[in-house]
Amino acid sequence: MADLTQVAPTPSPAAQRVEEQLNVEELKKLFAIPIKADDEDQVKVREDAILAVAKKLSDEKNTDELKHLIQSTRPFLCLLGKAKAGKLVRTLIDFTLGIDEDASVKIQVEVCKECIEWARSQKRVFLRQTLEARLIRLYNDIGKFTEAQALANTLIKELKKIDDKDVLVEVQIEESKGLYCLGNLSKSKTALVGAKTTANAMFMNNKMQAELDLQSGVLHASEDRDFRTAYSYFYEAFENADMAEDKVLSVRGLKYMCLAKIMLNDPDSIDKILSGKQALKYRGTELQAMRELGLAFKSRILKAFLQAFEKYQKELKEDRVIKIHFSALSETMIEKELCRLFEPYSVVELKYISDKIGLPQVRVEKKIAMMLLDKIFYGCLDQSDGVLYVYNTPGKEEGYKNAVDIIHSLSDSVNATYLLAHKLRLMETKIKAPPKAPEPKKKRRRQRRARSASNKSSSSNVSSRST
């Protein structure tokens, strides 16, 4: 698929000349000539020839020949070291998965599985795990989410044991995507949290960070309906994808930024987003589809909205994220169309509205009743006569609010006055209190005698005990 491609090594000028002369059959004949593993020049020539032919076949979208090319290179791969052979196989797989055609999907899956089995037979663990991660992504792209989950669960357990964080983050993000498409949002969020936890312990390249931010935004938009937070995640994803020079991810980030603005009932911002300095270099039908969708929302015409979905079916209806929000978008658009139709009137027939909007009268009645309950507009629905009375939106009553504010202020001032009066009363009582009269002399003498008598008795008791 288009979004699976990575930057493949550019063939050397010599290899580009070979590209015009060789095909797969001639390449097989070249492989039939034995060479030594330590002959670096011959190894380099054959490696460049493989890349050149693979690029040519990928540009021609010839998946069958690419499959035969990968099969024919396996004897040559055994001469290479594990790292170099793994890099060559991954590049060939990228060329194969870069062919974006529905007819090629079956062959792409077969090629991935064959390469995984070959890596398993050659005991190349790292290569096998990398290819399995790419197969999981391919399964998600073609809609085989159950197969993707089964493979991801096994691979994640294996990757955690060997602590391979790079591949682990990639697989956890794909697991979250698959669970989201299956409708299990809670598990999808758990998988994404696991990916973020793993990412915190490693350096993330811009492309992988963009994938992480994009999935975070998708989950915020779907689970929490928090489109403001989702927009900020989509913006971060777009910036990271732009720095990574990944066109597919950048366009997707811009697309979902426009979607968030539409869901926030702010279609005017779409032109600002798409005319920004960074966004100007990205063109295509996907962004044009979002622009027309925003114009339909702004005009509040349901027909224009449905026409945009029909015109850009691949870009809108086949996008799983937009498809999940399609029902909410449709309901919002119906509300906008209804408001546009009865805004000029104070009394309007329901039949007239249903004829104009092109929906059954029963559906229109139910929708208007819900809008009245949600206080989207003010009016009265008379089902017996089949008419709708539209009232002006009542203004805010500032008088009641001001009266309540005055009452609160008076209450505070009364409380403060009461506390001040209480303090003054306390001070007055202290001032007016009479001074203590001195004790009579006789009374003081009696107290001194009593104390001295008690002291003598205690001393006599102590002496008797000592004897």
TrEMBL record:
Superkingdom of the organism of origin: Eukaryota
In terms of InterPro entries, this protein maps to: 26S_Proteasome/COP9_Components, PCI_dom, Rpn6_N, WH_DNA-bd_sf
The record's annotation in PROSITE patterns points to: PCI (PS50250)
> Mind naming one GO cellular-component term on file for this protein?
proteasome complex
The residue range of the signal peptide is none
Q: Where is the composition biased (Basic residues)?
A: 441-451
Positions of the UniProt region annotated as Disordered: 430-467
Q: Which SMART domains match?
A: PAM (SM00753), PINT (SM00088)
Name of the protein: PCI domain-containing protein
Q: What is the lineage of its organism?
A: Eukaryota, Metazoa, Ecdysozoa, Nematoda, Chromadorea
